[in-house]
Amino acid sequence: MKNIKIGLIVAILTFITVAFTTKTDGYKVGDKIEDFKLKNIDDKMVTLSDYKKAKGFIIIFTCNMCPYSVANEDRIIALDAKYKSKGYPVIAINPNDPEVSKGDGFDDMKVRAKEKGFTFPYLFDAKQTVFPKFGASKTPHVYIVSKATMKVEYIGAIDNSSKNPDAVTEKYVENALDALLAGKKVEKTETRAIGCSIKVAN
What we know:
The chain has five helices and nine strands, in the order αβββαβαβαβββαβ. 31% of the residues lie in helices and 18% in strands. The protein has helices spanning 2-20, 67-83, 106-116, 130-134, 172-181; strands spanning 37-40, 45-47, 56-61, 90-94, 122-124, 138-139, 141-146, 151-156, 196-197. A hairpin with a 4-residue loop joins strand 7 and strand 8 (151-156). The protein has one domain: Glutaredoxin, CATH 3.40.30. It is an alpha+beta fold. Strands 2-1-5-4-3-7-8 form a seven-stranded mixed β-sheet, with helices on one face.
């Protein structure tokens, strides 16, 4: 009888732990990612395999409406300008459900990209199937991936100032890319992404 009670208590505790523990699924540094196919703002489908000459990718989950994403738009444009010619283009992905986040619809993305002069693809994760694979939870959330191995080299924030570009003292993404381009090890492979939560339907 005592063993049955103990077993029952363990079962209940296990259920509670599973039910209320936040999932941490998604790619980790060193993991190999799967390619994906999403629609760009030019209405064409884009995959990573389309980039034949790329050495890797700066994949950034971002959106129109999050103030943190807006504060980082110029920095994202600057990253593409600096590193695309070196083999690391920016691939921006909007993961938000536009029914939950008004202003994050596909047509809104086209308008915002034109207003800001985006020089990179701005893809729509319409079915919200890509961002969970990455484990992205914020906008913006950055993943640097090497193309040769399709492995994640860095996950986190663009730099150490989520909103004010004048307060930046450490450029995480640039430091990681410079190391990769020099054939060196990335020293800081993960930082905490600060931004708005990704909006999903209830």
